[in-house]
Amino acid sequence: MNRKVIFVFYMLTVIVLAGSTLVEHVNGTGFAARYIYGAWWFSLLWMLLAVSSLPYILKLLKKDKSKLLLHLSFFIMLAGALLTHLLSTQGVAHLRKGQPVNAYTEQVADDETDTARLPFTIELTDFEISYHPGTKAASDYTTHFTIKDDGAEIPAQVSMNKVFDYAGYRFYQSSYDEDGQGSYVTVKSDRYGTPVTYMGYALLFFSLIWLLISPKGTFRQLLKSPILRKCAVIVFALFPAHHAAAAPSFPQSTADKFGRLYILHNDRICPLQTYAMDFTKKLCGKDAYKGMTAEQVLMGFIFWRKEWDNEKILKVKDGEFKDEFHLGDYVSLNDLFSMGSYRLKAPIEEYYNGNKDAYHKAAAALDEKVNLVMELQNGTPLAIFPYRQKGRTEWYAPNQEYPADIDQADIAYWQGFFSTLYADALSANSAQADEAIKQLSAYQQRNGGNSLPDVYAYKAERLYNALPLATILFMFNLTIGFFAFAFLIYRLMGSRKPEKGEHTIRKGYTVLFFLLLLSFLVLSYTLGLRWMISGNIPMANGYETMLTVAWLTQLLALAGYHKARILIIFGFLLSGFFLLVSHISQMDPAIGQMMPVLNSPLLSVHVSIIMMSYALLSITFICGLTALLLHLAGRIMPDKREAVLQQAEALQVLSRIFLYPAVSTLGIGIFIGAIWANMSWGTYWSWDPKETWALITFMVYAVVLHTHSLPAFKQPFTYHLYITLAFLTILITYFGVNYILGGMHSYA
Predict the structure, then answer these.
(1) Rounded CA separation 34/478 (Å)
(2) Is the pLDDT of residue 563 over 80?
(3) 351 vs 346, 399, 470, 487, CA distance in Å?
(4) What does the DSSP 8-state code read for residue 99?
């Protein structure tokens, strides 16, 4: 009876958490914080779950110490959260230079604030913004202030991810005044809740690791299971491309030289080739067009405006939108103007007034492409002229307003450069254009200073742009994976005995192993290039995390090959799907500078561990999917039912081997993220949609570990069905939050 009560409260909590994120999406964060997460009944629900679980937890005292500590850690975390909720205070102090402050503003309700006093005085001495060299992208915000307490003066400093503690209060960098003479500092006092919560985190980390290394634990017993041995070709396609003639441009050799120049793009200095590729991909969905390189497309729009305004290069989405405006799959800029009026004016106005259905989103996407072309033809994005003054290097475009102290000779050169190239374009004088580009390159080297990227990073970016390795890999991996998977199913369901042809099969798996190893090395090289280019671990956005999950999936498959050869096939399929998602979902943003708050080692560890967990859970998903397909085949062919059952049992063991470390790394990753959040903005848990769904994922997958309490999961079919459906929580956590629910974590 007690187990049923626990299960009811547990699932009710999961349902409430899932529903809360939807309520927040519809009614706003303030509504959810007040009526759900901050409501008395929400705390009561967690308390009822904890109290109902207590008798079961106490039974573990004599049975399994690791499980006891694991469950005890959640009690301690809930106790810490309750103490924080009841006893902590948090607010914001506005500091201005020369103005002592001894109070801060505390938010007590949605639209109500209160003033809380400090037992000491704080005074701002300086505020500074650090920038990435040559750009206006902030790398950090730093507040210097003095604490005055009983005649003593204590110098203090806070910046992003760097806090300051004094007398039970913790200070965080929050915001700043536009004039640079003031700063907003978050002030938090939580003497009891945070230490207790951190104690729970430490116990959780210890017990999860113990769960994996304990000799008597279920995980170690699964590794020794003889059933694994029951888990028991290769073609890939090359396809040519063809293209028709496009509008005029410079020859490829001249365009290539143009692409080697530097430009300030996306808040960093990079090869102009990168901007050209981003521009072309944004317009037509590809980084080349009708046999022309991205640099040629860019130069065509700059110097042959009339011809390229008639070129049908702008890709159009959504069938209803295309039908309404009688548009094809691709349109030209001139197709969108009629008698001097802009045809998209009405749907764009409706879009910005709040109508965000597929029809209006398609209109907005096309309007964005139109604006990109117009901005380029006005010269706005072409910040290719560096100028050093007052110890800083700034990059300027040819048509912007310039500071009064810039040398007029430099301004004349900037404004005349494109006129020179335009004259060369009209006269088809590529040699003279090459010389002008060469002179600008030398000018950039003389004046760029330390804003120019390292020569190795520059070469890495050129190489990365030239080789679409991730795209090649998704086609390669999926092709091999599908053929190998089809052969696996055929062999498992075939009439021949599995022992026949075992030597040939072993050789085939060896070939697959080395092909996956090759794919892994190429993907590692790709990630290494992105790391070198950006200077950050490649996990800053949706595209990069998809690449990382694919990399981790391949690593796990290669590492587990000698235990279960079938993992190689799963490695091809899963990594191929992850790479495919990164390719088709338009998640390939330009490489840029990382937000200051995200530039933290703790965040890198948090994301890495979470991604590892997702990769492990992906393998359990494909194990479950394979088992369900075999089950379906067994129903169609009753004579194979016994073989299907054996394979389902073997896949269950294999799946559980990955499930234990997956749940462990997910739990560790979630709460390392909580520590990072507390270090960054003073709240270790804020019920943001992504962290809420990560907790839901953890709770959903944790259920299936309790095979003794829930014996139904000992049955292979029940287990595999649950595991397959549970993968939906990961899809919502990753894609649903990024593209639908939103929140602080939606960095896609």
Answers:
(1) 47
(2) no
(3) 9, 31, 34, 50
(4) B
Angstrom CA distances, 453 to 135, 168, 264, 462, stand at 12, 43, 11, 12
Q: What is the mean pLDDT of the chain?
A: 82
Euclidean distance between CA atoms 272 and 287, whole angstroms: 14
Question: Strand pairing of 262-265 and 182-189?
Answer: unpaired
Looking at residues 327-346, what average pLDDT do you find? 87
Q: How far apart are CA 609 and CA 666, in angstroms?
A: 7
User: Parallel, antiparallel, or unpaired for β 112-131 and 138-149?
Assistant: antiparallel
**What is the CB neighbour count within 10 angstroms for residue 109?**
11
Q: Which of 643, 492, 660, 477 is nearest to 574 (CA)?
A: 477
Q: What's the pLDDT tens digit per position in 9-39?
A: 999 999 999 999 888 888 887 788 888 988 8
CB 133 within 8 A of CB 115: no
- What whole-number distance in Å separates Cα of residue 17 and Cα of residue 39? 13
Q: How does 232-264 read in b/e, with b if 16+ C-beta sit within 10 Å?
A: beeeeeeeeeeeeebbebbeeebbebbbbbbbb
Supply 140's token pair: 């950090």
d(CA 462, CA 460): 5
DSSP conformation class of 39: S
Owner of token pair 């829930």: 710
3-class SS at 618? helix
Is the pTM higher than 0.70? The answer reads: no
pLDDT at 419: 87
Specify the pLDDT at position 13. Answer: 93
**pLDDT higher than 90, residue 272:** yes
Helix ranges restricted to H, 327-407: 345-352, 358-378
> What is the DSSP track for 277-291?
HHHHHHHHSSSEETT
- pLDDT of 235 reads 28
CA distances from 717 to 228, 540, 625, 628 (A): 17, 38, 11, 7
